[in-house]
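step: validate -> pass
step: tokenize input -> pass
step: predict -> running
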Amino acid sequence: MKIAVTSTGTDLESDVDPRFGRAAYIIIVDSETLAFETLDNKENVNALKGAGIQTARMVSDKGAHVLLTGFCGPNAFKALKAVNIDVANDASGSVKDAVKAYLDGRLPLANEANAEAQW
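step: predict -> pass
step: emit ->
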């Protein structure tokens, strides 16, 4: 399974970025091998609006099944759910720790957004 994680840096030891749409990077992690691909999100970091929706499209294009992040706004949450990507909010620590927490069942899936629009 492919897991997308918002990140402040480019590897698994980087901290989870608490923002989704304006995260510095998105790391796509293979849950079985921990092989990963880093996506630079700089085009959306400074977007006037629609950052979450554009980042959701990027995550979907990479085939992610779930997103781990700190906070996800309502428009991004809806966009992710529309393309069948589950969301686990309140992720923290390193990217690797967040993936492990999710796989161990310690990071539950969210039923709704946990941030205001354009946070």
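step: describe -> Strands lie at 2-7, 25-30, 36-40, 66-68, 86-88.
step: cleanup -> pass
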